[in-house]
Write a structure and sequence with these properties.
It is a single chain. With 290 residues, the chain is α/β, with parallel strands linked by helices. 54% of the residues lie in helices and 8% in strands. It has twelve helices and five strands. Helix 3 links the parallel strand 2 and strand 3. The longest helix has 28 residues.
């Protein structure tokens, strides 16, 4: 029995260190990222739950089926684009700006998404202006994260690609399912926000979250239209299997630029309609930066 005392002390000491470490980590998350902390505690709030959907107490139960229907339609859109939906996020439906800011850490927009390294994912939605496009957009961010992993999505995928892909499921700006036609329509939007191509945002300038959302409303809209035009052009050239092949290459260890360029090159061989030159593209492929 005497020989076990040092072992017990060691175990107790190690347990205390783990407990302290966990407490410090939890405190750091709560301080630095309060929205993640609040999302984790949503089940202890006064929000009503129905499966993985949490409703603000101000939302009447009669409206629950409407929200569920919108989410189901969005899930179908994600499932179709990503060739089988994998993610299953928690939905938090807010009814006012105070709640939305608490869980999203923002007062702007109709929705946002939060993914964590440990696999807990959340889609926060504002009941005002809630629709399939908003939900599909935010779900796309979570689906991309789920299929590629948090680390790769956060540090290897440019923000313009993440947002551009989400726009392919979001029809608020361009409502066209044909890849080529969608590119033309995004080019029209891009020309408007760039004042005829005079005020261009380079892809490398919007490759990070800070760069993408740095600026006023017009600047952010230009970032979205730039992303939408580039990704729709790429999808049109990559062909029907291009996105799937890109994801496969990424999961096999290819860099973003390698997978992105390869998918486009392989798909362009069978391209039947020649698209007009993408104004974002240079002769040098370095424009497609990581």
């Amino acid at each position: 029995m005497k020989t076990n005392k040092p072992v017990k002390k060691l175990i107790l000491r190690f347990g205390k260190v783990l407990l302290i470490g966990f407490t410090v980590l939890a405190g750091s998350i709560a301080f630095l990222y309060p929205q993640i902390f609040f999302c984790h505690l949503i089940s202890f709030s006064d929000f009503s739950s129905k499966g993985t959907i949490y409703f603000s107490p101000e939302i009447k139960k009669a409206h629950f089926p409407i929200v569920e229907m919108l989410i189901a339609k969005s899930e179908a859109r994600v499932d179709s684009f990503y060739s089988c939906k994998k993610s299953d996020p928690v939905f938090i439906i807010c009814s006012n700006a105070r709640q939305y800011e608490k869980y999203c850490s923002s007062t702007e927009g109709a929705g946002c998404s939060i993914g964590t390294p440990w696999g807990s994912n959340y889609v926060i939605l504002n009941a005002q202006g809630l629709n399939v496009d908003v939900i599909s957009h935010e779900m796309s961010h979570i689906e991309l994260l789920e299929k590629l992993g948090w680390w790769k999505t956060a540090f290897k995928i440019p923000q313009w690609f993440n947002e551009g892909t989400a726009l392919m499921l979001d029809r608020r700006f361009v409502n066209n399912s044909d890849p080529g036609d969608r590119y033309f329509e995004y080019m029209d939007e891009w020309l408007y926000y760039t004042r005829g191509g005079q005020e261009i945002l380079e892809l490398e300038d919007i490759s990070t979250i800070k760069g993408f959302f740095n600026g006023g409303q017009r600047q952010v809209m230009l970032a979205y239209m730039t992303s939408g035009m580039e990704v729709s052009y790429w999808l049109a050239r990559a062909g029907g299997n291009g996105f799937r092949d890109f994801m496969s290459e990424m999961n096999q260890g290819s860099s973003f630029s390698e997978a992105y360029i390869k998918a486009e090159q392989e798909g362009s061989h069978s391209l039947k309609t020649k698209l007009p030159r993408n104004p974002l593209r240079l002769e040098n492929s370095k424009k497609i930066s990581e």
